[in-house]
């Protein structure tokens, strides 16, 4: 691919101050948190508890989901209200792998069938569970299943020029349908309870400190890679076309670009990123169930992006972290306040902060700069 | 109005139970007492005020102590005291019918050491010649509360058992007969067959009731437990029966009896008489006959009977299929009309104004809660409250809608995705508000009498009235909305603004004010939909969420900015869903519908009835 922007790829990708700061902070966080967890004594003020490691790890996977959403919403104007469907599918693929790793240590001690299948009196493993005990295969599924769904769904939608609000609503319907489907026991994904009681991953015990920190690092690296991929795309020539589609879809089409293909491509990539985020999420929280598919979860994820500032990628990650931190804090301290806060946040961000926190910061900086010369 | 008539055996059983409730309150009181312990005494003493206790004491504690006091006051052992009570009550019960009551008492006494067939005979004699308490007696018998004192083989009714002590009553007069240790007694045993006879006997007693519905239920029960005694009783009752429905039921029972016991000719005649009768019991009986006679029977008479029965069964099956389809259609229309109600409000805000209002579901929920509040404000006037709730909900949801439009939506025109997010925030806020005010628990809005019955066509086909009312209601709301849009100046302006905002403004329409009004109109209709929904499901904070995706689907399916499209779309989606459900189950049907809609939108992004012309291109 020829790039309109000459010079080394890294300079191009990290030429923007915000992105550079983000990458530096992210690397520092990924290194520092496990170190502070393992080597600092518990009495130390800088000690990071096990709980916090898992919590920040979870935020990192949310941030990756937010980056995936920002990639299509911020740069291509596609609002998907069903992105947790891809997140959930990735999570289920990982969950299936972890489930198969339990082996005969389950309650019923069946070496092949997971507990819930024994409970349902199933005799054979359903075909789609085969191979999920092989890590590389399962990881391929983490990317391929969401990607395939996005490819088919997006292909149908974009070809028919379903855009804007209509697309948002049918993606919501998609994730709603998936939620209903996964609630059914007959689907073979554990129904209501989902997949849980995982024991170990790649032979390492999930509850061990080392595994937890390793998963944290994996999430940090995953977010970093996801961010870099997204940055690479949006700073390439392809990214320019995507922005053109966002700003004037018909004009781009008339200029000769096959809008549907571009949209489909970016939508699929974004879905794959979301799938990876889900796969990183599941071993850290230890459960995946159909509520991950609920439409409200998707919309919440969109709000992270809006809060952080769409169209910057690092803003999305920042928003995911900020909103989820507030959520963790508020649901702990004032559980009945959180839905109000979330509701007000939706309204306030759209009305007063159209560019999110990032936009607010740059606005403040501009105002400061304007004052300085005088 | 309640036009409830039983369909099938379960309904008959329920009605039989109702009949027991109606006719034998005292028997039931005892029954309850046995289960719940404490209340018995007051109930029982109300039922038989002739007891030595003060009637209907204020509370259980008093009863308890009074009872204990009585027990301890009585000198000697309790058995003696009972014997005294017996001697007193037996002759003195009804002076006018001394002879009858003596015979009755003698019949009861025979129960002490009777075999099962003898017990059945005794039972029939009791029922044939009952006294005021026979119904109670039979209930006690069926509940194994008829006991024999081992020492002298006297029969008592054990009204209650507590701490290994029976509270006894006289089986004839049901007067209190003191207390005694359970170990001195042996229950009069029953078996399944005898219980059936008891039940049939109870029904025979109820055949004399003044209430036609009770009599009808009694006939149904007897038809289920049909034997010669029951048939004779029905035959004897037939001439004096005044109610047509009961007489019809008796004729049916007698025909079924002929099918059971008659000779071949009688059976054939019975089949003929039963022809066209869709009653479940008839159907079961006919099917039984089909099973009993082998298909290749040699006997010509039998073959003839079999053919007649088979033809009849086939006919019933055919009709049953037809009615099943009709019923599914009705359920589909009823679901569809709910979808239409939920959707047309959205068709105005989304379709006409182009505003995505994700809080639409919560406006529906507010309407449902308005119905709940109205019923709380007007206790005892369920129907009136519901009728008043319709305009109230329109106003409440409409005002909230206008508030949303003025405070949020008006700043976001032309930015649909932002509108979507902001109104979603509103929906979260409203849900939590309702949770705070009304608690997260589900509330139920009671149905008025005129909505709680069934419209009964025949034994196979009945429509529930609440759904009928809702179908009619949603059509009425739809018609009213069409009138508003096509015949009023508000409607004219709304259409003008939706087609060309700038031009409309140039013609002097105050578009801002109109936007608020239109949004209020759509929201108000959502509120009305909520009132209707409150009659079908429980009212809870999540009520709206369940309908938001559905109503968007309806609007998009029907074609945005087209009210007729919403009507056709909603009804056809409802019917389609209900016809899918028997084959796939509820959840899968819903998933399939969503997939269908997703595919449909891909094919026809502008819905069934797309807007045409220049206005369509702009959006």
UniProtKB/TrEMBL annotation, chain A:
GO terms for cellular component: plasma membrane. InterPro entries: ABC_transp_permease (IPR001851), ABC_transptr_urea_perm_UrtC (IPR017778), LivM-like (IPR043428). Keywords: Cell membrane, Membrane, Transmembrane, Transmembrane helix. This is Amino acid ABC transporter permease. Its main location: membrane. It is a multi-pass membrane protein. It holds the Pfam family BPD_transp_2. GO terms for molecular function: branched-chain amino acid transmembrane transporter activity. It comes from the Bacteria. It comes from Salinisphaera orenii YIM 95161. It is found in: Cell inner membrane. PANTHER family: HIGH-AFFINITY BRANCHED-CHAIN AMINO ACID TRANSPORT SYSTEM PERMEASE (PTHR30482), SLR1201 PROTEIN (PTHR30482:SF4). NCBIfam families: urea_trans_UrtC (TIGR03408). The chain crosses the membrane at residues 20-40, 60-78, 85-103, 134-158, 165-183, 214-234, 260-282, 337-361.
